[in-house]
Design brief:
The protein is 53% helix and 5% strand. It is mainly alpha-helical.
Length: 479
Amino acid sequence: MDTKLCNSMNRRHCEPLASVGLAAALLTAGLTGCAHRGPTAPLLEGMGTHRRPTSTRVVAAQTYFDQGLVWTFACNHDEAIRSFTRATELDPSLAIAWWGIALCHGPHINNPVMPEEGSKLAFEALAKAQQLRAHPSPVEQALIDALAARYRWPAPADRKPLDEAYAAAMRGVYERVADDHDIATLHAESLMDLQPWDLWTRDGQPKGNADEVVRVLERVLAANPRHPGAAHLYIHAVEAPPAPERAVPAAAILRTLVPASGHLTHMPAHIDVGVGRWDDAAEQNRRAIVIYAAYRKASPRQGFYRLYMQHNQQFLSFACMMLGRCEEALCAGRAAVSTLPAAWIQENASVMDGYMTVHMDALKRFAKWDEILARRRRPRTCRTPQPCGVSTARWRMPCSTRPTLRSWSVRSSSRRTNACPSRRSRRSTRRGVCCPLRSTCSTARLLIRITVDLRARRSRQQRQLPTEIAPRAHGSTAA
């Protein structure tokens, strides 16, 4: 990682992110672009041992299909599409590769919204798979037929009926070949897509299809503990209360199962934080950061997957906050902001806005209020997202001086928008908020700015009192 990101800190505290046994990590991962490169995808080492035989007789096409399937299980759908596309180039009759392209253009738990372009590409790939339907095996034909329930063109405004139809079709395929671990995993994923990140109630009770998801994935892992897709989804299925410890064995296997996948390497950290293994959570994310640095060189074309790369820096910062490692938390938090292209952040502001304050969370965790206040006012010419974020919000008291939040103003990165009229009537102000927040400004950002302003009002008192959360000695990064 570029040490310029930490120019305000002692450099030795950022070295765990940059070195962390770099040579050893790359040797373990085996992550190198092989000499053989197709026009659409690199063939990478370190992809693990998972294989799914297909109807093709072209060895290279089979290799690219296997790589695409593992990338699918690792949620790297863009790279999976490139691998599946290369497989179709090597064997134009390989219908199941067109199925893979169509599958990966679809929604998933981390991105349930399908843009118009994605819907069209998915429908076209599915049509190609259906044209070649006579060539594959009966199981491959069943997968193609099930996926046909998922897409329509033109795409409807409400995708829910299509997602439900696809889940029902996958249940039928699973019931016919329940011992096929890939199909079982895809069936579980189709159910999770119906309620992304909503499997459990606040008191830990299962919702909707949660019990079936867990049951199917546990059945797969009992027979094949090293299945990358089942282990990945199982962690997501049970990481929330009531029992994240159920996935400790799956997390242990996934730590090194697919060394080329930064996301699968990172995934055990979701269970580590649930069971209090903060050191392990930090280490998994350090490894994932190193893997991603090598992966970007082998495959520089990245889209939505950049979010996963940023998530490792964010997660490392969070783990270091819990460990009391101030400077590493700040370093990772700043890297989470500064390593993403500004244009990409603006295009994905609705997703990224809440992530852009990781470094501010670290400053709050270690009671660095002066540094937060020093960042409050940035020049209006600041158009870059580092580290000032996508949008900011500031609140002020109404003329009535009531001790409640009555109005606020919103500032974007380039201009002030939707500001409160200076002569807004007292009556309209009392009715509530006189200028609503736009979608580009998250509630999280608002709360941060409220916290900052409250601290500013009491800054004189704060300087006279000991900090509420005393960090370790400045510069402590002991593992």
